[in-house]
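Reopening this one. Same input as before:
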Amino acid sequence: MRRQSGFSLPEMLIVIGIIWLLAALLFPVFNTARKRSYETECASHLRQIGIAIQMYLTDHDDEYPLRLLALMPGYVSHQGVFLCRLDHFEGNAPPGQYWVSPGTSYFYLGDVDYGIDYFRNIGAYDPNFPDWAVYIRTMPASEAKVVSDSWHRFPEMTLRLYADGHVKMEPSAR
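Same output, byte for byte:
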């Protein structure tokens, strides 16, 4: 009698079940790692934008750019720096009214259409206080509804670029 080599059906089902279980345990870990890498990439983009703003200030007698895209092409080499991979918004932002940085993933404390320069009046980026002066931040969930609920989010957190060039993840409420 000839003996057949191979695996039986129950053995194969057990192996497949173990593989599915391991995959179910590891996919959330991989998702978290991917999201962390995107957060790191967004922070890197903010640092690059901060360097570009410093160069712009040097060339324009300490005048801030009105819009982030004013840094193109002389200070930032490609528009990808202005985009975060976690930003999935594909709609049209209302022109000018509340949207300070169209074409970017970041909320720049620059010129807004309120009739006054609102953010400069509250000292949002006073270079005399570089450790607390904020240039740019990601949109927290509470403000995202102005344009879309699909804005990229870090749960209750936001990345902020400060005048001294450091980027920090902080609670959105600040």
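So the earlier flakiness isn't reproducible anymore. For the record, The CA atoms of residues 66 and 111 lie 5 Å apart.
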